[in-house]
Amino acid sequence: KAGVTQTPRYLIKTRGQQVTLSCSPISGHRSVSWYQQTPGQGLQFLFEYFSETQRNKGNFPGRFSGRQFSNSRSEMNVSTLELGDSALYLCASNGGTGAYNEQFFGPGTRLTVL
Amino acid sequence: AQSVTQLGSHVSVSEGALVLLRCNYSSSVPPYLFWYVQYPNQGLQLLLKYTSAATLVKGINGFEAEFKKSETSFHLTKPSAHMSDAAEYFCAVSGTYNTDKLIFGTGTRLQVFP
């Protein structure tokens, strides 16, 4: 079974631009979560989608948004990029329906904002 | 509210020595606890998890952790370090009612010397 895939793996943008990152979950997984990893703040939860609906949300400004498609693929968008948005963005998928669902992480997209 | 504290951002051991990585948690609800490992330029891989069954949990690669409610701890150990264990390790907590949102500690980088 293929793992979680994220595209692109690396991205360079300038301040003020917007960016879209993509995540394809493991086949059959319906839940996709996004995390931001920075040296200063560590790993922080952004949001989680299940069956095309946002089910959980972290404490990030509205510039960070996401969506999930009917095939469970998910995208996150960051508008009006700031230097502090430079980070590794990790996506995780799980089955989404049990009492405990193991999260499987992708390799991440490294975003650099200049 | 939930939080995780990892004591020691860097731990160095000799090959063959005991590995001990410390994690203390705070949770207002019964917690699920996890240890993840991250190798350079990769995503997170689940080492082991505590989901309210046995308090001594065995994971992959010879790692284990013990859930101690009285000490609010979930320390990770391995009897004999291997060079391939060098990586960053993250402790995480989630609530038993919302396992899709993980709260991570700040991580501990493990170095293994020959």
Record keyword descriptors for this entry:
heterodimer, A: 114 residues, mainly beta, 4-stranded antiparallel sheet, 11 strands, 0% helix, B: 114 residues, 6-stranded mixed sheet
Please render the helix and strand layout as text:
The complex is a heterodimer of chains A (114) and B (114).
Chain A: E1 5-7, E2 10-13, E3 19-24, E4 31-38, E5 42-50, E6 53-57, E7 64-68, E8 74-78, E9 87-94, E10 104-105, E11 109-113
Parallel strand pairs in A: 2-11
Antiparallel strand pairs in A: 1-3, 3-8, 4-5, 4-9, 5-6, 7-8, 9-10, 9-11
Chain B: E1 2-7, E2 10-14, E3 19-27, E4 31-38, E5 44-50, E6 56-58, E7 64-68, E8 73-78, E9 87-95, E10 98-104, E11 108-113
Parallel strand pairs in B: 2-11
Antiparallel strand pairs in B: 1-3, 3-8, 4-5, 4-9, 6-7, 7-8, 9-10, 9-11
Mind explaining what this structure looks like?
The complex is a heterodimer of chains A (114) and B (114). Chain A has 114 residues and is an all-beta fold. In chain A, the strands form two sheets. In chain A, strands 2, 4, 5, 6, 9, 10 and 11 form a seven-stranded mixed β-sheet that branches. Chain A has a four-stranded antiparallel β-sheet with strand order 1-3-8-7, with no helix packed on it. Chain A is built from no helices and eleven strands. The model of chain A has no long low-confidence stretch (mean pLDDT 93). Chain A has strands spanning 5-7, 10-13, 19-24, 31-38, 42-50, 53-57, 64-68, 74-78, 87-94, 104-105, 109-113. Chain B has strands at residues 2-7, 10-14, 19-27, 31-38, 44-50, 56-58, 64-68, 73-78, 87-95, 98-104, 108-113. Chain B is mostly beta strands. The mean pLDDT of chain B is 92. In chain B, strands 2, 4, 5, 9, 10 and 11 form a six-stranded mixed β-sheet that branches. A five-stranded antiparallel β-sheet of chain B has the order 1-3-8-7-6, with no helix packed on it. Chain B contains no helices and eleven strands. The chains are: A mainly beta (114), B mainly beta (114). The A-B interface holds A 4, 31, 33, 35, 42-45, 48, 50, 55-56, 58, 90, 92, 94, 96, 99-108 and B 32, 36, 41-46, 49, 51, 90, 92, 96, 98-107.
